[in-house]
Amino acid sequence: MLRYLISISIIGVVVAASGYFFFKDYWEHRFDDLITRQARVYRLDEKLVWSVIYEETYFRPGSRGEADEVGLMQVTPLVARDWAKETGLSEMEKQANDNVIEFLNDPERNIQIGCWYLEKLRERYRNRPAETAMMLSAYNAGPSRVEEWTKDSDAANISESDFISRIGIASTKSYVTSILDRYRTVATARK
Q1: Is the pLDDT score of 189 beyond 70?
Q2: pLDDT tens digits for 68-86?
Q3: Does 82 reside within a domain?
Q4: Strand, coil or helix: what is 64?
Q5: Residue 84 located in a structural domain
Q6: Rounded-to-integer distance, Cα 45 and Cα 75, Å
């Protein structure tokens, strides 16, 4: 009887471990096609966008943040309305104004707007050594914080590590570091 229980336990552990592995892989990559499509539209590396979503919500499309951020990329209603206005499509503006939460709960729309905003932020820091770290900091804490953290330096030439050391909000520093580490690990692993 003891052998039977041990055998059943071992089989249970093997099944649970393999189920976890396959479920985890499915969970983390179920939006890959949407991410790739939208990242290409906005000339972003899809591995970076994937890493942002991993950090923001761990791929939970219905997530809501403390400051009313919505969806996979935790897009704010203000950013969604700015995107809708910039599209020039009155139907998008209407949807964003009528029910912005529902509008942002659509995974593709959320990723589209999140990528648009990331690219808009990246434009501010393009060709700087700390471009990606600055973009991620602005996405998390706002562009004014990036300006605050670089005001007493040559922001156009500050290194990534120097910029990260200047980030004055611990949660933003952790956010940027975590995404960059994951992004570089994923980018190296998937080559």
Answers
A1: yes
A2: 999 999 999 999 999 999 9
A3: no
A4: strand
A5: no
A6: 19
Residue 108's identity, in one-letter code, is E
pLDDT computed for residue 22 by the predictor:
76
Share of the chain above pLDDT 90, in %: 78
CA distance 158 to 14: 50
Q: What whole-number distance in Å separates Cα of residue 42 and Cα of residue 37?
A: 9
Residue 180 belongs to some domain of the structure: yes
Closest CA to 38 of 73, 81, 78: 73
Q: Please tell me the total count of domains within the chain.
A: 1
Q: Which domain holds residue 148?
A: 31-60+107-189
Counting other chains too, the contacts that 181-185 makes at CB distance below 8 Å and 24 or more residues apart are 182/51, 182/54, 182/55, 183/45, 183/47, 183/48, 183/51, 183/132
Of 106, 109, 112, 105, nearest to 42 by C-alpha is: 112
Q: Write the CATH number for 134.
A: 1.10.530.10
Compute the distance between CA of residue 141 and CA of residue 65 in angstroms, rounded to an integer. 13
Predicted TM-score of the model (pTM): 0.89
Q: Could you tell me if residue 133 is inside a domain? A: yes
Burial of 15 (0-12, 13-18, 19+ CB in 10 A): exposed
- The CA angle 160-131-123, to the nearest 5 degrees, is 165
pLDDT in tens, 95-152: 888 999 999 999 999 999 999 999 999 999 999 999 999 999 999 999 999 999 999 9
